[in-house]
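[Discussion] Sanity-checking designs against the backbone

I'm trying to build intuition for which residues belong where. Below is a structure token string of 84 positions. I'd appreciate it if someone posts a full sequence so I can compare it with mine line by line.
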């Protein structure tokens, strides 16, 4: 008798990059005085402008995080090489 739960009932695994991007977009909107809920009440032109700016902001921040992670990895690799 099979007592395992069907795979479909499992929670989907979130993409960490997508979670970070969504958080950065929410951060940008908050800095501008908006929430995602507020966007539903705004004119489409303003929503498009805000989301374009928010997306650019998130992309730049994610690139910054990746660059810093790369630098930390290089520093760690250099330090490891010195220990040998």
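Best answer:
Here's mine. Compare freely.
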């Amino acid at each position: 008798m099979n007592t395992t739960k069907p795979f479909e009932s499992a929670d989907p695994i979130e993409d960490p990059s997508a979670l970070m991007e969504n958080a950065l977009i929410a951060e940008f909107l908050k800095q501008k005085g908006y929430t995602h809920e507020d966007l539903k009440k705004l004119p489409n032109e303003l929503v498009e402008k805000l989301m374009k700016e928010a997306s650019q902001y998130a992309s730049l921040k994610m690139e910054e995080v990746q660059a810093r992670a790369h630098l930390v990895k290089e520093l760690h690799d250099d330090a490891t090489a010195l220990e040998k």
